[in-house]
Design a protein that fits this description.
343 residues, alpha/beta, 9 helices, 17 strands
C-alpha cells in the first residue's frame, strides 16, 4: 500500500480482503486508509464472535421486509488498528448456496450488527455517507434502498441480483497493482477503486454463471457499477424459485428422457422436447403441454357434434366428419393406436 492510494484522488478506496493480523506494514496501511475515504471488509461467520464494530444505522419509512436477509451469529472482523482508520466496514461474504455466485448483499447481518455489502458501502461512502433509507414503494409492492442519490430495489433477501460485465469491460476497468507500485501515474480521480487479488492462491476466485474462476474483486466491481442503477434487479423469492426449477430440470435432463406432456385424454404421451446437450428444454416442454391441452379440448368439442345428417358429397355434417378423420389420423401418428370417440 505504499502506492499512496490517497494521492490518486479516488472518491473512495475499498479493500476486497479480510485484514485480520497486524504486521510490519500496518502502520503505513493505516496511514493510507486515514488519508482517503476507505472501506475495508469483514466476513459473516456463523462460528465467529459477536461484532465489536458499529454497524449501520438505517431509517425506514415503514416496516422493513427483510425476513430472508443473510444473517450470521458471528463476524470475522478486520484488525482494530485498521478499522479505526477506515471510514467504514462492509461485508465481504458473497452467497453461493449451490456453489455459484449470482447475487451480492446490499444489506446483511453479522454478530448482532447490520452491514452493507463491501461494494454497496463503497457506493454509500462515495455519496458522502448518507444514512441508508428503506422506502416503501407508493402504490407498488416491495421496497427500495436509498443511498443519497442512488436507489436500488431491496427484496426481502437483501440481495442484489448480478448483471456481470463482459470480459472486455472487465479488462478496461482493471489496473495491475504493479503499475501503481512502479510509480506509474494513473488518473483515478472521482472513481470508486476496489483493490483485490486475482491469483487463485490468494483465495479470491469465485464460480459465477459466466466464468468458473472470477476474482471476487471483479464481482464487487460489478456490484458497484450496477448498484447505482435504478434498473438493478433484486434477488427475491420468485428469482430463487425460477433458479431452483431450472437447476432441477438440468439435473433431471441427464436421463435423456423428454418432458412428459401427459395432459387430458392423451396421458402417457411424451413430448420429447429437448434442448442442447440432450437436456430438457422447459420452454419447448411448456409449448408441448399447451398444444396437448388444445388438442384434447378440440376432441371434447368434436364428441359433442351430431353424427347424423351427413350427406354424400358434403353437407352440414361433412366438416365434422372430416375433422374426426383428421383427429383419428393424428392420434394414430401420436400414440400408435386409433382414437375412438363416443357416439
Amino acid at each position: 500500500m505504499r502506492a499512496r492510494p490517497g494521492a490518486a484522488a479516488a472518491k473512495v478506496v475499498a479493500l476486497d480482503a479480510l485484514l485480520r493480523e497486524t504486521g510490519g506494514g500496518d502502520a503505513a496501511l493505516a496511514e493510507a486508509l486515514a488519508g482517503t475515504p476507505s472501506v475495508i471488509g469483514a466476513i459473516l461467520d456463523p462460528d465467529g464472535a459477536r461484532a465489536a464494530l458499529d454497524g449501520l444505522s438505517i431509517v425506514a419509512t415503514g416496516p422493513a421486509q427483510l425476513d430472508q436477509m443473510m444473517v450470521t451469529a458471528g463476524l470475522a472482523p478486520p484488525a482494530v488498528a485498521l478499522s479505526d482508520k477506515a471510514r467504514s466496514v462492509g461485508a465481504l461474504t458473497l452467497p453461493a448456496p449451490d456453489g455459484v455466485v449470482r447475487a451480492a448483499p446490499l444489506l446483511a447481518g453479522g454478530g448482532g450488527a447490520l452491514f452493507a455489502g463491501l461494494a454497496t458501502e463503497a457506493v454509500r461512502v462515495a455519496q458522502g455517507e448518507p444514512t441508508p433509507l428503506i422506502e416503501s414503494r407508493k402504490g407498488e409492492r416491495g421496497q427500495q434502498l436509498r443511498l443519497g442519490e442512488v436507489v436500488a430495489p431491496l427484496p426481502e433477501t437483501g440481495l442484489l441480483r448480478l448483471r456481470f460485465a463482459s470480459p472486455e469491460r472487465r479488462a478496461r476497468r482493471t489496473i495491475a497493482a504493479a503499475r501503481l507500485l512502479d510509480g506509474e501515474a494513473v488518473d483515478l480521480s472521482g472513481k470508486i477503486v476496489l483493490i483485490g487479488a486475482s491469483a487463485p492462491e490468494a483465495g479470491g476466485p469465485r464460480t459465477t454463471p459466466v466464468e468458473p474462476f472470477m476474482p471476487s474483486v471483479q464481482i464487487q466491481a460489478d456490484v458497484a457499477e450496477q448498484g447505482s442503477s435504478t434498473a438493478s434487479t433484486p434477488c427475491g423469492r420468485s428469482a430463487r424459485a425460477i433458479e431452483a426449477a431450472a437447476r432441477d430440470l438440468a439435473r433431471r435432463g441427464g436421463d435423456g428422457g423428454g418432458a412428459d406432456a401427459g395432459a387430458g385424454n392423451g396421458g402417457g404421451r411424451r413430448a420429447g422436447a429437448r434442448g442442447r446437450l440432450g437436456r430438457r428444454d422447459p420452454v419447448a416442454a411448456a409449448h408441448a403441454r399447451a398444444a396437448a391441452r388444445r388438442r384434447d379440448a378440440g376432441a371434447r368439442r368434436l364428441r359433442r357434434l351430431p353424427r347424423h345428417g351427413a350427406r354424400r358429397g358434403g353437407g352440414p355434417a361433412a366438416p365434422a366428419a372430416r375433422a374426426r378423420s383428421a383427429l383419428r389420423a393424428a392420434s394414430v401418428a401420436r400414440s400408435g393406436a386409433p382414437h375412438r370417440s363416443r357416439s
